Every structure is written in structure tokens, then in C-alpha cells.
Amino acid sequence: xxxxxxxxxxxxxxxxxxxxxxxxxxxxxxxxxxxxxxxxxxxxxxxxxxxxxxxxxxxxxxxxxxxxxxxxxxxxxxxxxxxxxxxxxxxxxxxxxxxxxxxxxxxxxxxxxxxxxxxxxxxxxxxxxxxxxxxxxxxxxxxxxxxxxxxxxxxxxxxxxxxxxxxxxxxxxxxxxxxxxxxxxxxxxxxxxxxxxxxxxxxxxxxxxxxxxxxxxxxxxxxxxxxxxxxxxxxxxxxxxxxxxxxxxxxxxxxxxxxxxxxxxxxxxxxxxxxxxxxxxxxxxxxxxxxxxxxxxxxxxxxxxxxxxxxxxxxxxxxxxxxxxxxxxxxxxxxxxxxxxxxxxxxxxxxxxxxxxxxxxxxxxxxxxxxxxxxxxxxxxxxxxxxxxxxxxxxxxxxxxxxxxxxxxxxxxxxxxxxxxxxxxxxxxxxxxxxxxxxxxxxxxxxxxxxxxxxxxxxxxxxxxxxxxxxxxxxxxxxxxxxxxxxxxxxxxxxxxxxxxxxxxxxxxxxxxxxxxxxxxxxxxxxxxxxxxxxxxxxxxxxxxxxxxxxxxxxxx
Length: 557
Hints:
Layout: E1 4-5, E2 10-13, H1 21-26, E3 31-34, H2 47-56, E4 60-63, H3 73-85, E5 90-93, H4 98-107, H5 114-123, H6 132-136, E6 149-155, H7 159-171, E7 177-180, E8 185-187, H8 192-196, E9 206-208, H9 209-212, E10 218-220, E11 224-228, E12 233-236, E13 241-249, E14 254-255, H10 263-266, E15 272-273, H11 281-290, E16 294-300, H12 310-325, E17 331-337, H13 349-358, E18 362-365, E19 367-373, E20 378-383, E21 391-396, E22 399-401, E23 406-407, H14 410-413, E24 439-441, H15 454-472, E25 479-480, E26 485-492, E27 495-501, E28 521-522, H16 523-539, E29 552-553
Parallel strand pairs: 2-5, 3-4, 3-5, 6-7, 6-13, 7-10, 13-24, 15-22, 16-17, 16-22, 17-18
Antiparallel strand pairs: 1-2, 8-9, 11-12, 12-13, 14-23, 19-20, 20-21, 25-29, 26-27, 27-28
Helix pairs in contact: 3-4, 7-15
């Protein structure tokens, strides 16, 4: 037997024999559903034989035969009713298990999120791409698929999405472009570190989405439920279907707050904060101003995360403020990093270590936050140091800045576009999808080995636009991405270590050393971060003005 577990309620498998029923009962199952009609194959046992063996094993049975490829809506209803009526857990089978998995998927579509259904069946080894529209439509066959179609559809209206839309239109003004995003507000997320440090007001980092969508671009205010790349279709919530000639996928990533036990319940109170959320960054500043003594924890989860320097930026800016307030000597600063290094590019580490020592901060590597007890003000970490046995430690705190675990969005992870880790699978040079040639991706959601930062998206947007237009014009992609990313590390109030690098840790400075030496803290880099980059973001990047972001070109072979 090849038992595939979908969830605790149901498992499915290919065809079984009467001799398997005792083992099925011994595995803890209490019921069996047969979804294969008798007589499909000469070597197939009849349901009567299965039923007799099941009865001897103490199992209940149900016969719901389905012809391969012909699962009707009422069949799914019958399967759902059987799951409610039969004692569980339930074992279902057909020739390969696919019909049983399909029936389960459709029967759960009214109560489960499509991404959860697709994730469960994918983990069990079954691809539900053929019924994804029905899943999104609550398990029913859609009656209306005559929806919108565009030259280019962009999934995501964040920094990457709006920038690439503007860059496309600057190259080909007549393109019919749509952006899909359900959000009302667009955020300048790089500013939240400065909000948490008391430099920016949170309100300056937010604008309405409608004010930023480029003129002439259609805004489809909806969430994406699934992709059908073989049919050039995006399925929206409510089972609306949007067709495209070319697709750009850039919805960002998911902050997985729920992955840390107790975190959601205590965010924004009990001294627990995060600059990774618009509404919490001001609370960071409140806590910093109010803390006169005690222990401050700053956490960093396993990679990948957006802006890998942000966890320590929060630490440096907080410590700099405590230093200015004259209370730093009474505060125990602890950096709890799930990884094993302070920063991934060694050239910047010496300057950062000077500040670690200046603020008397302790570096705790291989410490991954797994639980928080807000009222008790304790944080629990899984510690997995090399050559040591895993252990768990609990640490008391007075203030804790949390960087949440991060993954690709659910609807991306379960899609045909994702790699095994759940990220969009692209060629790291052209940012074109490895399998589907009319799909591109950029920003935090794709799997190229670059830093996930807004600066990276600023450079990627023109590259994707250039290559997509090349494709429209019948040419091979000519713009090449070198992995550029930038991380302005705010090491003190008024100074920044401007880390700029590409693939393999290659340093890629934008300025001459006499102006900004990125390996050292400089006032000039602070001015860049505080005064120059915000207007560059709002007035240049999002409007297709590619300041210091012209694509590197290669001749087509």
C-alpha cells in the first residue's frame, strides 16, 4: 500500500487488495471509501470483495464510484457528506488516489482556503491544477469564465509591482497593463526602521494605492487565489479569471507571525514590538524612550528575510538613543540571531563589530525565537549550535524587538510557479521563469540568491521591463541582473554603513569612496537614507524614472 496522508481526517491511496484491510485497520483507520468503479481493470478486486474484508477488519465502508476525469459537483457533495457520516479517520482509494484527492479538495472548498487545500494535496503528492477554478469557486464548476484580458498582468502593487509597471509603460506606452492587489494602502517599508528610531513619523511612509498606480494601468482590487500558467490565466478570489499574454509576479513575502507561539497575542504590548509592521514601529520608539534600565532583546529568524540588516538596525538605533539619553550602561542589549554570522558580507562586519562593542551588545548566534510569554516577559529560543546538542533556553526581557519568520505567500507556495522551497523559480540573470517563458518575477518573492530589499527591486524593475519588452519584440532578453542589493545599516543616529553588494558577496558601490565608503560609517550615507532615498522612491522609482538603475545590457546571442 502507498498511503498518502492529506490531514488527520483523511488519507488516500492507489488501488488496494482485500488483504490490505487488516493493515489499514491496524494503522488506525475506521472507515474506507472506494472511489473506483468495478471493472475498470481486469486485475481489480470488486468492491464487494473489499467490503467483505473491511467488515472482517471492523471497518465501515462506502461505495462512491467515479469515472476517471468525470468528477461532478454532486460527487464532491456526496464525498463531503460521507466524511461527516463515517467514523474517522477515513481511508479513500481509487486507481491512483487522484480521484479521491480531487473529491476531498472539492468537498472542502467551502470551508477551507484554496491555498490550504492545494498545500495539503501537494504535500500528499497530488496536483490539483486541473480543478483549481472549481476549488476557488467553492467546489462548484464555474459557469462564467468570460473575464478580463491584458497584454501584461502584474501580481502585486508594492514597490516592485508599481515600479515595473511604470518602467514598462516608459518603454512601450501602448501596453494594456493591469496590477492585481487587494490593498488600499502602499507603504514605504524601508522607512519603518527610521520610525522605530524616532526619526520619521509613520504617516510619511504611507500613501493610498490609488494615488500611485500609474496612469493608464488597470487596478484590479482583488486577491489572487491561484495560477493556471498553461492557460495564461490568473484566478482571483471569487473565481474571476484574468487572462494575460505576459505575467509579472511580485507580491512580496509573508510575515509568518503565527510561527512563533504566543507572539500574535502580545504584539504591541508587554514590551514586544517590531519595525516590520507599520502600526508597531511607533511602539518601538515608545519603548526605546521609556526604557531606562533592564534587558532589551533583538531577534533575527532563519533566512531568507526581507532586509536582512533590519533586525540589527533596530538594535543599533535603539542603543544609540539610549547612549544619548545616558542610560545605555543600565541596559543589557542582546542580539538573538538564528544564523551564525552578524552579516553575510564579511567586508562590512568590522565596522558593525565596532558598534556591537561600543553598545556592549551580546551576540547570541544560532538562537531562534520559538515562543513568547508576553505577560511573563519571557522569550524561548531553540539553540542549535554546530557540534552541540540542541537545547531550549528561556530569557527574560523588558523590551523585545521581533523580526518574524518569513515565507513566500501561501498562494505562491502551492502554485506551479514555485520551486521546492516555495519561491518563484527564475533565471537569476534575466529574472524570467525557468519553465514558463512568458512569466517574470522580481522583488522578495523570487528565488534568485540576492538580498531581499527595496533597493534590489529598484534595480530589478527596469531589467524585467527591458526583458519583457524584448520578448514582445521577438528578441531574446538583453538586460542582466547582477544580484545588486543595498542595506543602509543605521549604526547610530546620524551615521550609516552603506552595504551594497551583488551575487557571491561582490561589492557593488554606487558612489566613489571619497563620497561614501560603504565599509565605514558615514554621515553622507545617513543623509542619503534620511533625505534623498524617500523622494527617490516616491517620485522616481514608482514613476519609471530609473535613477542609478539603468539595466546592464548584453548583446543577444
